[in-house]
């Protein structure tokens, strides 16, 4: 609701999963489902996190009210209203936009970002790193790419 997406279920898979399975099949890679974005481990982390703070959130909203952030937020919401959530995520979201959403989440909901992005990046990297096989096709949400690449470069150069 903070970003204006309304009641959209981001946990439902889309056609990207079908295409990833087909791509893996074409190159002879084995398939391994790594779990949903909001997996049991992430839910447990969220349940044990007690530092979500409404007054802090409201203060941040006030602090960022007259900044470039406000202009970008209005622009994002306008695009979203014009094309709808599905078309917005399929056509309007590039690496800059994803990074903007991640940084905004870090500003307004730092504990949520830590759990749902940073810790999930680590979990996914560990699972990818343990995968056996000569060819691996990995399908992850775009907001995990940078974190997984970071862990990969840190481990393998």
Short note summarizing the structure:
By secondary structure, the protein is mainly alpha-helical. It is 66% helix and 0% strand.
Description:
The protein is an all-alpha fold and 157 residues long. The chain has 8 helices and no strands. The termini are far apart. The model has no long low-confidence stretch (mean pLDDT 82). The chain has helices spanning 15-27, 40-48, 54-63, 68-83, 85-92, 95-108, 110-130, 145-156. It has one domain (40-156).
Notable characteristics:
mainly alpha; globular; 157 residues; 66% helix; 0% strand
Distance between the first and last residues' Cα: 39 Å
Low-pLDDT stretches are none
Q: What integer value in Å does the Rg equal? A: 17 Å
Strand content: under 5%
Task: Supply the helix-strand structural class.
Answer: mainly alpha
Mean pLDDT, to the nearest integer, reads: 82
Write the layout of secondary structure elements.
Layout: H1 15-27, H2 40-48, H3 54-63, H4 68-83, H5 85-92, H6 95-108, H7 110-130, H8 145-156
Helix pairs in contact: 4-5, 6-7, 7-8
């Amino acid at each position: 609701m903070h970003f204006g997406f309304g009641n959209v279920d981001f946990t439902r898979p889309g056609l990207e999963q079908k295409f990833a399975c087909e791509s893996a099949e074409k190159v002879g890679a084995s398939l391994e489902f790594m779990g949903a974005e909001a997996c049991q481990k992430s839910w447990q982390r969220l349940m044990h996190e007690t530092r979500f703070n409404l007054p802090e959130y409201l203060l941040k909203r006030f602090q960022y009210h007259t900044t470039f952030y406000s202009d970008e937020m209005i622009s994002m919401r306008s695009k979203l209203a014009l094309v709808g959530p599905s078309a917005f995520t399929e056509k309007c979201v590039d690496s800059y936009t994803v990074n903007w959403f991640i940084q905004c989440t870090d500003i307004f909901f730092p504990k949520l970002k830590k759990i749902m992005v940073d810790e999930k990046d680590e979990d996914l990297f560990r699972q990818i790193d343990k995968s056996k096989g000569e060819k691996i096709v990995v399908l992850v949400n775009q907001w995990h790419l940078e974190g997984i690449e970071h862990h990969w470069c840190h481990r393998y150069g």
